[in-house]
Protein 1
Amino acid sequence: MKQMILSALDMSCVGFLAQGVWTHPADRSTELNSLDYWMDYAKLLEKGMFDTMFLADTIGSYDVYGGNMDAAVRGGVQLPMNDPSVVVSGMAAVTKHLGFGITGNLVYEKPYLFARRMSTLDHMTGGRVGWNIVTGILASGARAMGQEKMVPHDERYDMGDEYLELMYSIWEGSWDEGAVKLDREAGLFADPDKVHKVVHDGKYFRMEAVHPCMPSPQRTPVLLQAGASGRGKQFAATHAECVFVNGSSKDSIAANVADIRRRAVGQGRRPHDVKVLAGATIIVGRTEKEAQEKAAEYRRHASPEAVLAHASGGLGIDLSRYPLDEPIRYEENDSNRTAMENLTRGKDGAYTPRRIAEEMALSARNLLIIGSVDQVVVELADWMEKTDIDGFNIARLIMPDTTRDLVELVVPALQERGLVKRDYSDGTLREKLFGAGARLEAPHPAANARSQS
């Protein structure tokens, strides 16, 4: 069996997926404004042979539940939310191999500035940066960015295709290979004939500029994406190197993975040019009884109101309008369409607010695994075998306890079975994940942006 990719999933916030659990006395997530917190976090993950730390992000606030953001403010539902990119240099300074996936919203990020930020981070980390490409799900985010309403769902991916075309031109085409000379005697830093202005005049974006950064180790960061709609998967098949999927059914995840790989082949890529990671929350004990006791303790700290506020924002519907045991109905909007489809028209029947509050208290829409070390290892291996995923995007519950449990209990057991590496390989994040070069190669569209001179 192939070795699994291990990615830690978090946000630069307090209430991430397990809403209300920050109230647990052992949780340190309220220290998010301390660089020491993030550096300790990164060192723990590298000790546990994690490949990446994936920092999710959102623009806007969860203000749909009850028609306001009161529940989100009370419960700390992804509010406050810090910039995920700022702490990366600190974490990189205390690690050598851990990669960093940083979320950036292409609808709101200006291409020139975002390209500079990511290239700078790629330099500062020695080529360990990835970009989680998102288009946003919160209407409040559109208003925060000066727009009256969200760009329609599928059009956001049309914007994405043009945005990526422009970013490839900036990262791959502005500076030729060998442009940087560093010739002190001649006083020649770079060859002007090998540095090109990027001129783009498209439907959504315009730019005329040279990329302000010299080429970074990867040039284009590792491209990550989590769109689950048909249009989102088509976008991923064209651009993404890693795709994140959610769900608790092996059959549905397997079908999703097969669809993503089929679409990648349709774009001229190989099926496994796209790595697929399943979102998971793991509670492990030395015995099953200990794990179940931990889970029960965490549930006692969960906030049903905060869970529903989080779900309302993602779905774009006010769940406070529903009686607790009334099934929610499908409503077309421009928020998370896949979540709406799954929670209203899934094979398990429509969810009620009570069911959402109970089943999503600890893991949101991620897979939840609770058990002894052996049980967790067997379940993870079974998911790998039956779904063709490449690894897991594992969300924290209590920081650092649940992450430390993974590092000290689960990872050694996975290593004994040959499912997780014992040592890191050298190189950039792309080289570590794919065993290939630091730069994207054909048939990926980024390769087409390079100068032929």
Note: The chain has one domain: 5-288+369-449.
Protein 2
Amino acid sequence: MKYDVIIIGAGLGGLTAGAKLAKEGKKVLVIEQHTKPGGCATTFTRGDYTLEVGLHEMNGPSPSDMKSRVFSDLEVAGNVEFIKVPEFYHFTNGRRSLTIPHDPGTAIRVLENEFPGEIDGIRAYFEQVLNPKRKQTGPEQEKEKSIGEFLDSIITDEDLKLVLLGNLGYFHDDPYSLSLTYYSVAQGSYYKGGGSFIRGGSQKLSDYLANYIRGHGGEVLLNRLATGLVADGRRLSGVTFRKKTGPASETMTATADEIIANMSMPGLKELLPEQEASVITDAIHGQRPGASLLTAYFGFKKPLRNLGFSYYSTFVFDSSVKSQSDILKNNRSSFEERSFTFVDYGQIDSGLAPEGKSVGAVCCIDYPGEWELLSKDAYRRKKEETAQIFIRRLEKLIPGISEHIDYYEVGTPLTVKRYTLNPEGAVYGFAQVPSRPAVKYQGIFDNLHFASAWGTLGGGFSGTILSGYLCAVGLLRKK
């Protein structure tokens, strides 16, 4: 089997790259180890409920958002429906409770009313996230600040810092080790372009892109695990792969002029010959995977609006978190105290449940070490115990909710690792620490390219979509 381009992985980066290349006439093969495309941009069904794996809200799409150009080029508009979410987030910690809108002007007024002594700091914060300074390069560059250091330099009130960091879990687990530049660009995109959810779940976008590839002459093979890369001097000539589950199958080889890795860089290393794998080892030295997530999925017998609840995404910080320095410690505390997000998809026309029912999800930072040494029985017991803890905590947030739970299920960092093959179940690629050096994978092979959350743009839906599109454009321009 001979192709112009083989893409290993059908996450959003691989699918976007494949769609653009197929549109431009390239013969594309996408190999995906899971039984459905999308990576973290997937859903699964339990009875009446479609449960969203990864998407709470996507920034934009908006006229100033580069994704709009990508979606226009690939005819996503009109085929995938984006629903605007009603607010950026609601924050509560037992001391403060307020809702942050997407519109920056309105958000500034809300915060100034709540924290009248911090007007200068609030305006300095929004100046930073709406107009992020370019990261300095070269020998004269200053050490980059973390978002935590920046907030400490402009704001005194600790609760205000926590409110502004309400959605920190979208990016990282610790404000003092998260790049200010990265945070500013990502956070600013929500304030500039608002947020949206894909009606029917993120699987709709993934399936659309996979079918777009097929409709333009490409192939997307699911349940196929890449087992190696075939080297021929300074170039790769192909990929070996086999069925991942089901009846045993022989290893097959597909050849191509160009190879795109839509996977983790540590995972890519395992596919390379020993000498070239050592180059990857050197390239990622000092990089560490970002945090993983635990998610409890819920199906409800009725919309939570009927219980008087009115927020789409609520960030619940435990009252023991008094300052930024408590956040990382809290992320490793017991689930009785760990801060969490609750997303109520029933607040919008999400298309995830039939009329009269709804779905929601609790999500918090988590790590595989808490799970990987457990026996199967202990693992199942801990998942059930964790579900019950969050049901009790939701009952405090929304009295009466427990009576309306029709279904629940817990996914752990090991679940993320199993379905994505990401080391440590990381969902955002490498941790975006201050002054993080770029991963220079170029030069390993002349025809190896990278398009995923583990690349230069980082994770999240936008990062991976743009990574895939820019990879494809660069390949098309390659001489």
Note: The chain has a mean pLDDT of 94.
Protein 3
Amino acid sequence: MTPSTGRLYDRVLGCLYGGEIGDAMGAPVENMPYQQIIDTFGELTDFTGYGTDDSAMKHILCDAIRRGGGYPTADTWVEEWLAQEELFLKRHLFWIPVMNGFWKIRGQGVAPREAGHGNMASSSSAMCISPVGIINAGNPRQAALETYDLASPIHHNFCRDAACSMAAAVAAALHPDATLTSVLEAAIDYLPPQSARTMRDAIAGTLALARETAAYETFRARYYTEQMLPGIAAPDARETVPVALALFLLGEGEPERTIVYGANFGRDADTIASMAGALAGAYAGVDAIPTRWVDKVRAESPRAHEDVARELVTVVRQRLDDLQAHTAAVRAML
């Protein structure tokens, strides 16, 4: 079976398209409350363009996976930043903590693993991390472990835990026997109960509200009044990751509904819709995404998602072969 056929390829491609479509649909209403979106647009159900910095960082991460021979690290991630530094030198393309990490490394020689110290909270690690879930398909524990290193050039706080959560969820969604429950459990189970308490509690509380309300509009209204962090003008991963997971639940893992929910949630709408769309795409596959949306991204995006999906599936196969060889060698000594 070639990397461009099979169930895994279909779901990897769904993850890539779902993430970019969500990013593009939510971009025009970024930072709007949902009430303003309703007043201005009614309901967003379509998009133009192909995404924002969320998608740009994800593409660079895919390049870093290639650079690392299928085993990306904080160092190879940053090497790719420096190789593509013209993107980082464009004003306003990337958010503050990404640029802080970039300039600490580029201008001050800070080690990549240390560059995230002191950077402001954001969703900049979690929003682009789904490729790490992809290359760890079916292995959420390993996805979380690798993400903890990869996120360190940007964050050293609860935002790094949030990225681990999203990578684990995507990896779990790519398991052949994935269910909504198994995906959402993976989003919490591989976060340490003490060290990652902030994110574990935020995710658990938001999912509890989603299950209690069981309806998107009710959940959205109650989240705004009951769970939004007071005094936080710029949403960070304590909001975006739990909400993305909750919308995946409320959308029952169906990409079209999940993406529309994310774009119309408001606040950091592009990031919420991108993460939720990537997760739903991984869970349901590209065939579950409206063809009109896929065709639009295919025509406008600077990246050929099919090529990237083939490369990532090849990485998965390579890593499985490596693991089997290692397992056989150790087993022979038992």
Note: The chain has a mean pLDDT of 95.
Protein 4
Amino acid sequence: MTDEKLSPSIGFPEQTDESGDLAMRLEFLELTADDATRLRSFQPVFDRHAVEYLDAFYRHLAMFEETSRFLEDPALVERLKLAQREFFDAMLQARWDEDFLCQRRRAGEAHAEKGIEPKDFLGSYNQFVQFCLANSSKDISPDTLLVISTLMKAVFLDVGLTLDAYFEQLTRDLRQALELYWAANNELKQFAHFTSHDLKTPLGTVANYCDEVLDEFEDQLPKDARQLIEAARATVFRMSGTIDELLSTALATETADPDDEIAVGKVIDQAIERVQPLLEREQIDVIVNEPLPTVLANHVQLREVFYNLLANAAKFIDKSPGRIVIEAELSPASCIVSVVDNGPGISREDQSKIFAPFRRLSRNRDDSGSGLGLYFSRNLVEQQGGQLWVESEPGRGSRFRVQLKRPAGNVESAG
């Protein structure tokens, strides 16, 4: 008997986009009316061995941690077995219609929603095929090869429909996540505006007080007191400028590649100047090993990164004398600038935790700070196409490494 191609409209009273897609799949896989008959002929075989097959399959799933976590409830396992039997029954019944299409879509969406990855549910198809191959030679003859060929085509039809629905569901989830992200981003921008205003208002008040003191009492002030007030006023203006720069940077397009050629040495000098009071109080020396490269980066963001790294190192160094070394490793396309300290070091287990927001190590719980410095630093570096990570061992200090892009045509060397 010659196989007859299924009509594109078989099973579809009205041709829809989805039914048209299914008809195209049937034609592409060469699934015919004779194939449908062969699949149905295998139904009695599956019925006789279904319980045995499903028990064996779920024992197999229970052997793997990623799937066994879904199978802790015995009642749920029984419901899953029933659902899977109905799923494969529908495949063997070969009713390629709207109901079949909807069932496959629901299966794919359910796998995506529950976090069951393709490698896991494709395993069920594999087990089913192995079961069919093992039983076809005993129960079907002489058309065994035709049945197996038909079965493989039906499996690929199922896999295609299920995977399509799976990835469509993931796409919807991603779209929703992006919408939430952009909503949160807009809220963050508004927060940045309000926060900058709230920060700059008291700074302006402090600057005015400094000016009034100098205007009213300058002649009565000792020279050292006048110098301290002038230094405080200069610090206030510098802080105000820093807030403006940070706000401008935060509102800039984050996806744009950095194209400014920045001298790392200049940025680090500015970061050291900001952290100098802490360095002096803790008696920590900073050693800058030349040469330091020119990189493609955002000046303000990069300065904040190195300020955070220096302040973080100075805050936790537990030895006297304290020491921070800044050095660079150069390659034609990139460089790695390291901030190395002789502090207490960080265990391998804790190295990933320190970059999480609001996370501090147990030994630092009572220290001041927001717990956001390293989190923001890593984000700022990644926005510039770089990476930030730490290499450390307890008792042997820490090395924070910042990898950045370099301009084309570099002639600098590591020296």
Note: The first helix runs from residue 17 to 28.
